[in-house]
């Protein structure tokens, strides 16, 4: 609409509302009375007859009040508008759009859960073209069950190409065993990825990973953590991020999960870490259905675990070094172990005595000696009880000790020297 048309519309609208007369409208627009009558007729044809009336499809006041009460209830507290609209359709049978929820909330003068911040200008990193080329791992320690349980840590792995959660597990704290379980879950569901992206937590790197110049010149390799050794055996490249912004995809994932899963766990009545892990597959499926995207290349880079590869129990485990004794025994955790009978028949040659061997301890507590790509199960040997030797008395004459008499010179005081 041009400036001239807008001026005519405003003047004629004032005539329609009864604020001025037709002659005054014609004088203001410098038109004849017949011309402003034609303009008035056109404007009245454009204006809908239901102006000022409530639309037939408008939300009932009772439904609006019900939505407002549910929004303020303990059951749905701390929900954002989009998530609340989804929960209303799922649990209450009320299907409304997030914009309708937002209008109801603003009409009641209820502030949003999170203040909208202006977007920051940054250059986003392109997603990997194939699923499985890069998987980001991290943990988020939070009150996932609010006041119903102690805070716990959610370990999650997200595929960079699709944004899908490929594995997740709740743990009391962020630990190596938790990442072993997370990796096992990912491999069993999807396969072995090409690379894993993580932060510089001591779980992912050794405290002695910085080599001196002499060690580098000698060709020594950096020591790996327990988790790093497992990734090496699986053929997974490990990439460490230097800043939280570098792994922004999983950082934003935890923001979304803290915004949604706390409410979802509350609605399901979850009040323990065991129950939370039981409902995790359902939560992961719902999240992937809502937020995952299609990769650029439909071919997956995840590699299934081959049959000739060692068991995952012997890869995702703790490793220690011991020296094998002459009797095929070794000491571990203040106990004595020997190679189980029959384990050497299929392995040639047997382990020579005094050999430095790797002891692998699985997550369920079993022990194995790992030697030249073979696993030798260990069995505990009870230590023989030592009998205490009888105490020996010192040989003596048997006489009573001599006691000086009362008038003995040793008992007399010394004379004073003047």
UniProtKB/TrEMBL annotation:
PROSITE patterns the UniProt entry points to: INTEGRASE
Chain residue ranges for the region called Disordered: 111-131, 380-418
TM ranges: none
UniProt biased composition (Basic and acidic residues): 380-391
Top-level lineage group: Bacteria
Gene Ontology BP term (one): DNA integration
Residue ranges constituting the Integrase catalytic domain according to the UniProt record: 125-312
Gene3D superfamilies in the record: Ribonuclease H-like superfamily/Ribonuclease H
Molecular function GO labels: nucleic acid binding
Compositional bias (Basic residues): 111-129
Protein name as it appears in the record: ISNCY family transposase
Species this protein is from: Caldalkalibacillus thermarum (strain TA2.A1)
């Amino acid at each position: 609409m041009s400036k001239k048309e807008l001026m005519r519309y405003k003047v004629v609208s004032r005539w329609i509302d009864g604020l001025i007369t037709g002659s005054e409208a014609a004088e203001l627009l410098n038109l004849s009375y017949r011309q402003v009558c034609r303009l008035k007729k056109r404007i009245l044809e454009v204006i809908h007859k239901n102006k000022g009336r409530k639309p037939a499809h408008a939300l009932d006041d009772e439904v609006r009040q019900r939505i407002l009460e549910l929004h303020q209830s303990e059951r749905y507290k701390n929900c954002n508008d989009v998530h609340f609209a989804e929960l209303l359709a799922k649990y209450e049978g009320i299907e409304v759009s997030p914009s309708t929820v937002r209008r109801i909330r603003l009409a009641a003068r209820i502030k949003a859960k999170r203040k909208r911040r202006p977007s920051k200008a940054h250059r986003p990193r392109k997603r990997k073209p194939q699923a499985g080329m890069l998987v980001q791992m991290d943990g988020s320690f939070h009150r996932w069950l609010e006041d119903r349980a102690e805070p716990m840590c959610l370990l999650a792995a997200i595929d960079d190409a699709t944004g899908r959660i490929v594995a997740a597990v709740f743990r009391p704290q962020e630990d190596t065993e938790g990442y072993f379980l997370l990796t096992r879950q990912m491999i069993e569901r999807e396969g072995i990825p090409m690379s894993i992206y993580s932060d510089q937590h001591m779980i992912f790197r050794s405290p002695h990973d910085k080599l001196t110049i002499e060690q580098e010149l000698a060709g020594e390799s950096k020591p790996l953590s327990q988790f790093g050794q497992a990734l090496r055996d699986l053929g997974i490249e490990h990439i460490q991020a230097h800043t939280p912004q570098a792994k922004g995809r999983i950082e934003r994932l935890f923001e979304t999960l803290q915004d949604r899963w706390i409410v979802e766990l509350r609605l399901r009545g979850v009040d323990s870490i065991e129950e939370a892990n039981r409902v995790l597959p359902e939560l992961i499926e719902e999240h992937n259905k809502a937020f995952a995207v299609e990769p650029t290349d439909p071919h997956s880079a995840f590699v299934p675990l081959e049959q000739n590869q060692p068991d995952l129990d012997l890869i995702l485990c703790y490793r220690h070094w011991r020296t094998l004794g002459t009797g095929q025994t070794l000491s571990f955790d203040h106990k004595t172990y020997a190679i189980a009978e029959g384990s050497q028949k299929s392995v040639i040659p047997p382990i020579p005595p005094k050999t430095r061997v790797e002891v692998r301890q699985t997550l369920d507590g079993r022990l194995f000696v790992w030697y030249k790509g073979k696993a030798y199960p260990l069995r505990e040997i009870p230590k023989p009880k030592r009998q205490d030797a009888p105490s020996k008395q010192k040989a003596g004459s048997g006489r009573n000790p001599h006691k000086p008499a009362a008038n003995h010179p040793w008992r007399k005081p010394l004379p004073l020297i003047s």
